[in-house]
Amino acid sequence: MSGPSGVGKGTVCANLRHRMPELIYSVSATTRHPRQGEINGINYFFKSREQFQDMIANDALLEWAEYVGNYYGTPRDFVDRTLASGKDIILEIEVQGALKVKQKFPEGVFIFLMPPSLEELRQRITGRGTENADVIDHRMSVAVEEMNLLRHYDYAVVNDEIDAACHRIQSIITAEHCQAKRILADMPQLPAASEKA
Amino acid sequence: MSGPSGVGKGTVCANLRHRMPELIYSVSATTRHPRQGEINGINYFFKSREQFQDMIANDALLEWAEYVGNYYGTPRDFVDRTLASGKDIILEIEVQGALKVKQKFPEGVFIFLMPPSLEELRQRITGRGTENADVIDHRMSVAVEEMNLLRHYDYAVVNDEIDAACHRIQSIITAEHCQAKRILADMPQLPAASEKA
User: Fold this and answer.
1) pLDDT tens digits, residue range A38-54?
2) Where do you find CATH 3.40.50.300 in chain B?
3) Is B174:A167 a contact under the CB 8 Å cutoff?
4) How far is B56 from chain A (nearest CA, A)?
5) Which residues does the UniProt record annotate as the domain Guanylate kinase-like (chains A, B) (predicted)?
6) Which of A145, A174, A193 lies closest to B144 in CB terms?
């Protein structure tokens, strides 16, 4: 699950956690310092720069990026182990990172969380109250650029209302499990059509 | 929505009607006589053989078939008018008919209702108590043949339990409305990426 910065990915994910306890959440690795209450292995895997650079060198990350001086990335091992156990895993991820994951997992399901409108996105970014006008303008132009990447995604979910958005994501997960191509891939061979059952 | 004979299409559809009153149900045309309580235009459009043959001649049917001496078909006009009004329409339809509809509406969503197992399907067919062993064997071999057509469908929904099957179909409808390709087709052009929002 991805989408432009400020669209509400974190809030939607927190809500999904309550609704779908069976869904596993990918835990990112980062070099930034833990904030109060954050727990290693739950909120993030907290790493030193050296540890993180080793993970990059060992291709242990599905994607990674540097943001405001800190590294963030998705450990490949945790994703692989979850999928191997037959469970669904959700990645809450920036747009550029999602496109990198798609290169490695084209069979994944890529959901783009959309603001109801660009005006609404500006209000949400402004509403955080922590940025000046230039920063907001810059983040808006990045967001518009990111919206143009929607065409690389399978689904677009408008985050107009948190419960509605979560319901749509749950429906997408249910529907994807019903896709004929997935079921055919898992199905034992049917008896030949001419054979009596 | 389609699936082998005996899988429970009618029961699932009746249940969906209660759950999704906003969904429009396609009404078939038939030359068979109305059963007690059946209403023209609600259960079927009841037609004479001459009227039905005129509809065939005028290409007024999306698909049609003759079954035990009676014609059954899907009037194209009702489907077209519903789609033009922006509503969703569901067709409860035999497997062969669904494949004909797919030729005319490749953008439709094709759901295959599956029995939990072939043993369970035989029990359901037998359970109706109206058929002899030869008829049941014949219907089973037709059903197996129809199961092999699953690969032409978008989704497979196992009808293990009526509420669960209906929930899956509702999820599929919700998810399809979130498909990026549908949303992109309906979306006004975004501002160019370089332009400030």
Assistant:
1) 999 988 999 999 999 99
2) 1-21+95-183
3) yes
4) 30
5) 1-174
6) A193
